Amino acid sequence: MIANYGFNATLTARPGKGDQLVDLLLTGLDEGSPGASEHCVVYLVSRSASSPDTVHVTEGWSSEEDHHRIFAGEAAQAIVAQIDGLLAEESEYTDYVPVRGKAAF
Questions:
Q1: How far does CA 99 lie from the centroid of its chain?
Q2: pLDDT one-digit tens code per residue, 16-49
């Protein structure tokens, strides 16, 4: 399956909460969570090298519709609700249409 829709989010945690934010975002890969969906092709959590409370999430999805449908579900909304309490400011989102690339871990 290829990614036809994606986005990058930059999240800034409250001071000292970067580890907790990363741990929470990584639960998105657990069984039944959004990142474990067959429609999620890329789910990458990264940290800023210069600011440990700045976290980036890159996602690639089979379609924008699949992304919106999965994120409307209970599991995704539970994660989102917890994320809000860890943030110091509004998250920045950039959507995109993947062209080509590689992800191997």
A1: 19
A2: 999 999 999 999 999 999 999 999 999 999 999 9
pTM of the complete model? 0.90
| Distances, alpha carbon 33 to alpha carbons 16, 23, 26, 83, in Å | 26, 14, 10, 14
Is 92:10 a contact under the CB 8 Å cutoff?
yes
Over residues 49-99, the pLDDT tens digits come to 999 999 999 999 999 999 999 999 999 999 999 999 999 999 999 999 888
Three-class HEC string of the chain: CCCCEEEEEEEEECCCCHHHHHHHHHHHHCCCCHHHCCCEEEEEEEECCCCCCEEEEEEEECCHHHHHHHHCCHHHHHHHHHHHCCECCCCEEEEECCCCCCCCC
CA distances from 59 to 15, 64, 103 (A): 25, 11, 11
